[in-house]
Known about the structure:
The protein has 312 residues and is mostly helical. The chain contains 13 helices and 2 strands.
Amino acid sequence: xxxxxxxxxxxxxxxxxxxxxxxxxxxxxxRKTVVRQVAQHAHSxxxxxxxxxxxxxxxxxxxxxxxxxxxxxDEAGHGLYLYSACETLGVxxxxxxxxxxxxxxxxxxxxxxxxLSYADVxxxxxxxxxxxxxxxxxxxxxxxxxxxxxxxxxxxEESFHQRQGFELLATMxxxxxEQRAMVQESVDRFWWPALMMFxxxxxxxxNTAQSMAWGIKRNTNDDLRQRMVDMTVPQAAVLGxxxxxxxxxxxxxxxxxxxxxxxxxxFKAVISGNGPCNTQRIAHxxxxxxxxxxxxxxxxxxxRRSNEESHE
Length: 312
């Protein structure tokens, strides 16, 4: 088939809301867009281990340590699923890691904010994983097959993480005045960065229109942000915390909440590398990659030796 026929077949598959698989022909722009989105998602899972991981040893009980350790382990697994999905598009995990630590690929802006208190463990679970659920459940229907299938298990686990975070905050809100104040302070810090996780407003998002036309994304940034707010406000009322937005109010006509705008200048600064923890996060990831070099070398040497022995 010539390229015109291949493109027509590709567009027909997208139009029928069917899946594009690794061996199918696809436009180079589609391949690059999927690699960019999936790699950013994978990097976010791996970098996202850092803010919560620092609290494993300081969690207040063995039960809380085990819960947090299991969650961080889940995030590592999510990163591996997603890197594997990327590899089906012809890019290796080593290449993706190199692009991350060299600053040529990004990860979610939220992970450039510090986890300053133990309450942040709960807030990250409730708000950050809650935002992830809003964004990722529609991706179970994304047009690229390996990505959509990996999202099914990831979303199940993210939903569990969100409930864990909510349960931790609910427990603290039944505690002392100091614990309740700690939760409120944490929510005050994370609310706006959590809303920024969905990306810039639709009229300032250069990739949304094409990604939606190809079925890679299923919802716009603003639509997902609205879903997050509508989902979270009733949960905040149950917890007894106040969301730090004076413009937040119910709109009877729209049957949704009106809310204020995040600080988009802050968002641009963070994704440009000037957030509170950008340098720290990448330095930690680079150091971990370098420290693990001997493991990768040993594994390759073992594989070569096993291959040679099998051919003797």
